[in-house]
Amino acid sequence: MKERCAPYGFVPSPRMLKALLSGGLLILAFPAPGLWPLVFGALVPLFTALPGRSLREALGLGLLAFTVFFFGLLYWIPGVMIRFGGLSRPLALSVHLLLCLYLALYSALAVAGAAALKAFERPGLLPGLLLGAFWLAGEYLRGRLLTGFPWEPLSGALAPVPLLLQPAALVGALGLSLLPLWVNYALFAALPPRRRRAPLLAAFFLLGATVLYGWRALSLEVPVFPVRVALIQGNIPQEIKWRPGEERRSLERYLELSRKALACGPDFLVWPETALPFPFPYGGLTGELLKGIRSLGRPVLFGAPRAVHTEKGWDLRNSLVALSPEGKPLGVYDKEHLVPFGEYVPFEDKFPWLRNLAVASGDYTPGRGSGVLEVAGVRVGALICFENAFAPLARARVRAGADLLLVITNDAWFGRSAALRQHFDQSILRAVETRRWVIQVANTGLSGVIDPYGRVRLLGPVERPWWSCFGRRP
């Protein structure tokens, strides 16, 4: 990639500016501000910069565009490292940049591979299909390699638009990413001097078929929500959540909100991830917890760190526990896909210094099992925190017989940032893919209920204690 140097410093080339523009437009297409129509044209500037470029140059332009995109999309990560991990601002931004470079590599390789096969010099139907195949491979691998981080595929920008989301029930969110990708490619191919019409006609066909299928799906009768559930959002700030002496206050907050929620006659109540900041069932407040649940007279599902004794000693699990109205266990799900550097440190045994990059001091052990708990006659498929970004986990719950999906999370780490909406959007994608109702209960928001077609039927506030009931009335 040629660079021009001015007397007073580096001046980016027009091709680099186009890559930067694509990265910026992609940021705007996702929350926040969530200007989703931009996803259908955001890649066009990058594509116009690729004809005639070598594999190395195309890879560099792709890395520039997608690094900018992920740096802006995930702008909330450095703040977490600074605020809760104790990292300096320069170090946090450096780590964030490395992460974004890594995430950008998958999409950049997809674009560069298509460029090497002349997909941008001689655009057409077959070259467009090759680009789509490379892109799908990139998003697939991003969600699986090195623990995986499938957060916000290209189709994620469409989460606010149920009409366009419905094909995800057939091809998944991954396959749905081909729709905005193809429209971008078709617009690029139609520009002079190329003026290729075939990709544009195919784009019109894809959009028309998507709208028609979406309209048909949204006109169907929605399956009845099988239970009446109370969502309890405690709003415990992360700064005090784990402070010694705050355990009792957290428990009292959730019991108080739960008592109020009894007025709507729920079949069971749900508290968020780590609602109880003490190890269950050995914490000193376990007796008060059981007494409080018995006073409610309803099953309660709550998140808590769970201490488990094994042959090798004590393990700590990030768990969802279901207790009966009598305080007896109905089921337990231990989170199986842990957050690297948040709940464990990958490769710590070989590189102990990585512990210094850990956002939290968690040393959790992953769980195993179906992830399905039966409560009040309903089979609940459990997902904890960012597990809702992993489509295979949600599908596994459905294969195991889940009637609905439940996501519990603690997003207090991220304040009022766009992370909350981005996280909720992952639940929307899972609802459409699995055709299941999804309940999300968060400590500080966003909490809500999504129907099997991706329509938000209930949405709570941010950073406010809140409860609400949803579902059929007794």
UniProtKB/TrEMBL annotation:
Which UniProt key words apply to this protein? Answer: Acyltransferase, Cell membrane, Lipoprotein, Membrane, Transferase, Transmembrane, Transmembrane helix
HAMAP family in the cross-refs: Lnt
Per the record, membrane topology reads: Multi-pass membrane protein
Q: Which GO terms describe its molecular function?
A: N-acyltransferase activity
Q: What is its EC number?
A: 2.3.1.269
Q: Which GO terms describe its cellular component?
A: plasma membrane
Q: Which organism's genome codes for this protein?
A: Thermosulfurimonas marina
InterPro entries given in the database record: Apolipo_AcylTrfase, C-N_Hydrolase, C-N_Hydrolase_sf, LNT_N
Biological role: Catalyzes the phospholipid dependent N-acylation of the N-terminal cysteine of apolipoprotein, the last step in lipoprotein maturation.
Q: Tell me where in or outside the cell this protein is found.
A: Cell membrane
* TM spans (from-to): 20-46, 58-76, 96-117, 163-188, 200-218
Q: Does the keyword Transferase apply?
A: yes
* Protein name (record): Apolipoprotein N-acyltransferase
